[in-house]
């Protein structure tokens, strides 16, 4: 078993019309044993920027704390929020500088940039970025997430349709992966509001 699969995870971010959604499962397990069903994988950096971290749970929490610290320093120095593209470069640089003993996690970054244009990207554990215009996935359920998102995604969806699409994609994907699941956590972000919803999934 790969160390990235030790705790299990499913993460997906999807782009809509001037909005984006990011969703994760809620299971925290040790291999096939479920420990908790309310684990947080998505973190808010500021009102228009979120990061999801899949992989080894201890490393994701450490990395999240260090990223929050770096963002607060940026806010103090620049007196403004970080753009998603800038934040993606920061995450990439932080991962690459630890490349000989990497953080065992794969981030998914989603945010609204200039003119409320959605930005999403993912990267591997040493910071190699992969940008996308439609959706990005990460975690042990990523193979089935690719299939579900390919089938369900369509461009320029509104916030409600985007929520429905990402929720269906997540729930149908984690059913095909025994290391993730136990409900879902979805954020839909528009220029004016952030909507957070908890999904109920199969509990077995």
From TrEMBL:
Keywords associated with the record: Cytoplasm, Nucleus, Proteasome
A Pfam family found in this protein is Proteasome
* CC annotations in GO: cytosol; nucleus; proteasome core complex, beta-subunit complex
GO terms of biological process kind: proteasome-mediated ubiquitin-dependent protein catabolic process
Q: Which domain of life is it from?
A: Eukaryota
SUPFAM superfamilies on file: N-terminal nucleophile aminohydrolases (Ntn hydrolases)
| Alphabetized InterPro entries for the sequence | Ntn_hydrolases_N (IPR029055), Proteasome_beta_3 (IPR033811), Proteasome_bsu_CS (IPR016050), Proteasome_sua/b (IPR001353), Proteasome_suB-type (IPR023333)
Q: Where can this protein be found?
A: Cytoplasm; Nucleus
Biological role: Component of the proteasome, a multicatalytic proteinase complex which is characterized by its ability to cleave peptides with Arg, Phe, Tyr, Leu, and Glu adjacent to the leaving group at neutral or slightly basic pH. The proteasome has an ATP-dependent proteolytic activity. Non-catalytic component of the proteasome, a multicatalytic proteinase complex which is characterized by its ability to cleave peptides with Arg, Phe, Tyr, Leu, and Glu adjacent to the leaving group at neutral or slightly basic pH. The proteasome has an ATP-dependent proteolytic activity.
| PANTHER family per UniProt | METALLOPROTEASE TLDD, PROTEASOME SUBUNIT BETA TYPE-3
Q: How does it assemble?
A: Component of the proteasome complex.
User: Which family does the entry's similarity section mention?
Assistant: Belongs to the peptidase T1B family.
Protein name from the UniProt record: Proteasome subunit beta
Recorded source organism is Solanum tuberosum
Its gene is LOC102599420
